[in-house]
Amino acid sequence: MKLSNKKMISKVSNLLKISILLVLFSCNQKAKKTDSSIINSDKKEPKNNVYASDVIPFFDHWKLILGDGSNAGIANNFENKDFFFTSNDGKNDWVVFKAPNGGDTHGTSNNTRTELAQAKKWYPKTADDKLTASLKVMNVSATGDARVAASYSVVVGQIHSADGHENEPLKIFYKKFPGHTKGSVFWHYEINTKGEDNSGRWDFSSAVWGYDFSVVGTDVNTYPEEPKDGISLGEEFSYEIKVKDGIMTLKFMSEGHETKTFSKNLIKSEYTTKADIPLQTQKLFVPIGQDGVERKEAYTGEGCFFKLGAYNQTNGKSPEVNKNWCSGAEIHGGDIQKQYEDGNYAEVWFKTASIYISNTAVSNKEYFTKND
Predict the structure, then answer these.
(1) Which of 48, 116, 227, 252 is the most buried (most CB within 10 A)?
(2) pTM of the prediction?
(3) What pLDDT digit, counting tens, does each position of 35-64 carry?
């Protein structure tokens, strides 16, 4: 009987040992599964934001002006969800520039902009500088006065003077009237007005695809015929701007459209007398008192710089102030989100861009000091 009890105790002891080993093994396996699930969970963490500087890595050369009038500075690894961010159309990442019809503006402008301004300036006579960009315009203002030439338009590239009157030898526009599928691309040369009074300055507009700036509606809500060779919202096009030895050369390209090239002398004016004022200008600007003449040397001696982005040309100011530039558009008292909700803004997406800066370029710091 005693021997039997000893055998039974031994069996129970062995069973307990086996049970303990099984429990320990099971716990160890659970721990391994838990560790594995943590590792897998880490792998599913969302990737970091794609910044504009990841898409177009050239932001060291620019200061970014936002649609609230502020200077964001060098925009590496930067975004602002209201004005400047990236988006993917299913094929490519794009840099988005967005500007409302009404809000705080930069410098003395009547218009909002989300736009890059070059950190250096160069002089046209000694320049060997270049800017290229590939883009698509996604929205222009839903409201405006059709008789006002600037209504429903946005400037997507510029050359700006940092000195003198701070005029603009180049502005590249996109404009589309409400109800039209196709819009127009055109470019402007603004005279560098002779003398101290800049109030007589005017622009001369050249059509690329579609109409030029001077084609307007007959009344507030009556529009011209849709351009046959225009560019649609969301349709990609490219521009190339070169300035070398005083001559500006422009090239515009878009699939399915004729490539267009232009040139303009920036150091010798062709508008030095009243008789030189073009017919287009006589009809558009002279009636409102903008009938100045240009200095013979045009932009010689003035530092110039590139701009790129969305410079919204539609604003809420009354056309009675200026029938060419004041659109009378909806601005909801400057409420940006309300403007975005009902289409009263400009939005431009850039896929690629590049800049070449000559060795003669110098700091553009003084321009920002004056205008920020």
Answers:
(1) 116
(2) 0.87
(3) 333 333 344 444 468 999 999 999 999 999
For the ranges 6-20, 149-163, 185-199, which has the lowest average pLDDT? 6-20
**Alpha carbon distance 163, 227 (integer Å):** 37
φ/ψ of residue 263, rounded to 5: -145, 150
Beta-carbon contacts of residue 144 (< 8 Å; ≥ 6 apart) = 151, 152, 314, 327, 328, 329
Measured CA angle at 324 (ends 322, 328), to 5 deg: 65
* pLDDT reported for residue 5: 46
Strand pairing partners for 205?
188
Asked if 161 and 126 touch (Cβ cutoff 8 Å), the reply is no
Report the distance separating Cα 282 and Cα 214, nearest Å.
11
Residues 234 and 94 sit within 8 Å (Cβ to Cβ):
no
Question: In terms of Cα–Cα distance, which of 182, 83, 134 is closest to 351?
Answer: 134
Per-residue pLDDT tens over the stretch 289-298 = 999 999 999 9
Mean pLDDT, residues 143-165: 98
Q: Which residue has the tokens 């996604």?
A: 138
pLDDT (average), residues 265-274: 98
